[in-house]
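Might you be able to check the backbone structure tokens below? Thank you kindly.
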Amino acid sequence: MKKPALSSLNGKKFDVVVIGAGINGCAAAQQLAAQGFSTLIIDKGDFAEGATSKSSRLLHCGLRHLTPGKSLWEFVTNPVYLATALINTKASMVARKDISETMPELTHLTKFCFPIYEEDPFSPILVDAAFSLLKILGPKDPPLEYKRYKADEMAEVPFSSYLRDPDKIKGMAVFNEFLFDWPERIAIDTLLDATRMGATARNYTTFKTLEEKPDNTWDVFLQNALNPEDQITVNARLVLNVAGAWSDQVAEDLNLDASQKVLKLKGAHIVLQLPPEFSDWGMLAMNRAKEPLYCVPNRGLHLVGLNRVPYEQDASGVVAEEDEVDWLLGEINYLMPKLNVTRADVKYTMAGLQPITFDPKEPHGSRAIKIHDLEKEGLKNVLTLTGGPIMTHRQVGKDLANAVGKRLSPSQPPQKLSSEVSETTKKLNDTRGQNRSIQYSKEILQKIAIEEQPANLADVLFRRTGIAWNKGQGREIVEEIAEILAGPLNWDEGRTKNEIQNYLTHLDNEFSNHTD
């Protein structure tokens, strides 16, 4: 997947140009290449840098789709909402099996618990019913191993002795959940397979505009994000807008009076070091707003989140604000008062935008995954995706490729795709240390620099290796890593020093714990 010079693409013809190389865009490119469509996929930043990188890391079993806000009456009064929930639940269970079995190097089985309080909207019997429904809707394996403990049976669950108001707990649900170690690597591996089958991929490439041609194809104008004077045009029979939180911005760039398609929901997390007995255990609970609060184990730490609030500002550079950090600290301390965590206990923070399908009737949008045909808005053979959580990316990729197939015939023969991880990921997996933290070697880093298009240290430490998700976020080894990368990336001494400082500044700006 070596990066082609932008000038080498000028004037080239593709069946499909995919705008946005998050996990859904990468999955679409893989499926399109497998079906025989010549494909170019671009992203204005790095691959998988947006929502894919800032997720809660859960390969959800689908339970969250069966928790309709504050009351089950929302299902009763809105049958469409119920139907969407059941569809998404089944898709989540299918994806859970598919990804955990084909990419075991990038997934991790853990135990999750769910305390049930007397004031919660879901009684123990309803929780039992929800897990029974999961078993009915999804594959038998891997098993959920669901068990509900009564209030006087919870001692073997690590979180139980820390929970508030033990006299109000009616039971504890315990089940198996899978985690993504770092979903960016899944996107990278998916993209590597797409390029193996002939797709062309390029990061740091900005979409500028479209121009319709007399033969009903599109000229797509592109710009090098790292060198704005470098601009080209390629031709596409169809354009897929999979830009996530930026999808509506793409329409605005075309000066379209298009209706809103995406609702951006901001989610913030804090990352804590919890007591050793919590290791490899996660928790789902209801916060005081009667919405889910997750406590997710990740490399010896726990991600605690998230708040979900509509976000109307620019989608770039989203960070966890001080009031959001304080709110999350307040919620985890309310749930587990014995922890008594403060800002000083926060290792780092994380925030991102979830691109939900816009629905004027729903303040927090619709969980429906939709492919919008923009022909009625003057753009024939331009499709936009909304929704699409990371766990169902493979099905979304298939749906997008099938939508293309209804409009075009592929120009090349089909190929067989691979659902397995790359050789680089296998080598990274072999370096795992304590708490599943990724280590590194000179060989792996140089291979990544040559083959996977990183432009800076954040690209390598976050998306390519996941080292930045370890406890120290790579601060203690960044200089050594920069020296290894300098050769294959053609950095001189001054550039190397600048890249180190840029990385440390990036951590301070986007992952701050707000203690200064």
In short: The CA atoms of residues 264 and 355 lie 5 Å apart. The mean pLDDT is 92. The chain has three domains: 6-51+183-261+363-405, 58-180+264-354, 423-510. Residues 6-51+183-261+363-405 form a domain with the FAD/NAD(P)-binding domain fold (CATH 3.50.50.60).
